[in-house]
Structures are given as C-alpha cells and as structure tokens.
Design goal:
- There is one protein chain.
- This protein is an alpha/beta fold.
- The chain has two domains: 36 residues; 185 residues, Rossmann fold.
- 31% of the residues lie in helices and 24% in strands.
- The chain has six helices and ten strands, in the order ααβαβββαβββαββαβ.
- The strands form two sheets. It has an eight-stranded mixed β-sheet with strand order 3-2-1-4-5-10-8-9. It has a two-stranded antiparallel sheet with strand order 6-7.
- Helix 2 runs parallel beside helix 3.
Amino acid sequence: MKLLTQARRRLGFVSQYRKFANLNRTQRPELTSDWSDRWARLDDDTGHLPYDAHYVYHTAWAARVLAESRPSKHIDISSYSYFATIASAFVPIEFYDYRPADIQLSNLRCAAADLCQLPFADRTVESISCMHTVEHIGLGRYGDPLDANGDVRALAELQRVVAPGGALLLVVPVGSPRIQFNAHRIYDPQMIESALPELALHRWALLPDDPSGGLVENPARDFALDQKYACGCFWFERPEA
C-alpha cells in the first residue's frame, strides 16, 4: 500500500510539473523551471502542519521562562540550538556543546564544554538550561563512554554551578521509568527532584503523550507516570544563601 501511494504521488508530481511549467513559461519566464532542477517534495501535502511536539513545546516553555525571569545572562548546555539562537534576541546567551556550534549572531557566544565537567566555578551561574540532553549521557549514542550513572553525574554538575537565587531549566523524558538503549532514559519526575537535593522545584510542566492539549502545568506525579514518553520541563532554583 505504501509503495502504491508513493507511485501515485510521483505520477501526480509529474502531471503537476507539466501543467505548472506551461503556466510559468508564459506568465513568469524570468524564473526558470527546468525538469533537471526539480526538487520533489511528495509528503508535505498534509491537512495539518507536522511538527515535533517535544521540541516545539519545550523550547517555547523555556523561552517564556527567560522572558519572565530576565536574567542578565543565560547559559545553555547542549540544548536544541534553535532555542539559543532565538532566545538570544532578548537575553544574552552563551551556548556550549561538546561539539561547538559555528554560529555568528549578536548576543550569542558559542563554545565547547563537557556537561560532566562544566567550566564554571561552584555556585556562580545565574541562569542555566540543559534540555533533552541529560537522558542521553552515558549511553554511547553520541560516541560518549558508556556510564550507567552518566546522567546522575551530569545532573550533579548542573546543580554544582547554579548560584544562590539562580535557576536551572531542565527538560527530560518523563513517564514509566526505563532505558530505551541506546536512545535515552525516561524518568519518574521524583527521580529528577531526588537527583538535585540542593535545588528547589519552582514549578514544572508536562507535555503528555497526547500533546493536543498542550503543556499541563504542575501535573500530579501519578499522571506523569501514566505516560509512555512525555516531556517534562522543570524550573529549579537554588535558595538564596
């Protein structure tokens, strides 16, 4: 059935091209439309805009937190690069990754860093995020060494650098706790709180398995555990000294 659908789409594409090329030849000759220069997009004719709900919602959540908290500078560790580039329009951002990004924008600085050995002194970072990253550490997916406690070490390192009164924005998969090797870990939200004993959970949001209703603010733990692969967005703070 799939092959038949693809064949129909290709035939439809050929028919559309011929029709359009004839129209374009008489109406817009300044724009060439050669068959040899085609770029067929056969899967975009959908009733709704497709998107990756986890990455749309968690980056939007984090940007709203920064718009609310307005730190003097924000540091991001290995999150989705689109977040750092867009949020740098209104907050100065330093974006660190094990593989540094060659991105040139005002208000944005990119550099290399190891999440398990961050280049910051204890309790010095006002605002930091690490989103959809911790769950991968130690599984070898990105060429990193195998380490069953890699995520725990990463969380401890993030906790170490948060300043008094500072914030940590953390995003991880949430649901029935397990490892889907070598892709990621999925956590009970209580596991995340327990791994960050020096920080207090200010609030959190959950994008459930069914994302049609959007983010659920401060959901019950039982609701989170009923999910298979939800997106947990945690806003932690270190109490003032």
